[in-house]
Design brief:
The protein is an alpha+beta fold. Helix content is 19%, strand content 41%. It has a five-stranded mixed beta barrel with strand order 1-3-2-4-5.
């Protein structure tokens, strides 16, 4: 059973919902062999939008996004966090970010846990809300 963890705790797991999911291209490049656990999980309060070759989670009430909660090996955590920030083009405070890394509670198993989630940055989210294509059911794999 997973329990809730304080969002300020070091070493938060990651909630992944697109190309970092098991079986997807970036999972093999970034996560394979660097995780302790990968569990199905749900992020509520977000809608999934189709992007160019990858999805964006946009924070919106009423939506749910399917993904996995990925717990990194402690010895790999710092490097993995830096690599994922680069992959997602996230730089703290940069107004040109595609994604923002935020701590959010996700449902996992019969409980919940806080995790890092890469959500669409404000300018990207505004464009997606105006003219983007939502992915029905919130599952990027199911869109194909």
């Amino acid at each position: 059973m997973s329990t809730s963890t304080a969002p300020s705790a070091p070493g938060l797991p990651f909630f992944v919902y697109g190309t970092l999911r098991p079986g997807e291209v970036n999972h093999g490049l970034f996560l394979r062999g660097r995780t302790l656990r990968e569990e199905p999980a749900l992020l509520t309060g977000a809608v999934l939008y189709d992007g160019p070759d990858y999805p964006y989670a946009v924070e919106e009430p009423g939506g749910t996004v399917a993904g996995e909660l990925v717990t990194a090996r402690p010895e790999a955590y710092a490097r993995l966090l830096a690599e994922l920030d680069r992959l997602e083009e996230y730089r703290p405070g940069d107004p040109h970010n595609l994604y923002e890394r935020v701590a959010r509670e996700v449902a996992v198993g019969d409980g919940s846990a806080y995790a890092w989630v890469y959500v669409a940055a404000p300018s990207v989210a505004a464009g997606l809300r105006a003219a983007g294509t939502p992915i029905g059911g919130g599952d990027w794999r199911a869109r194909r």
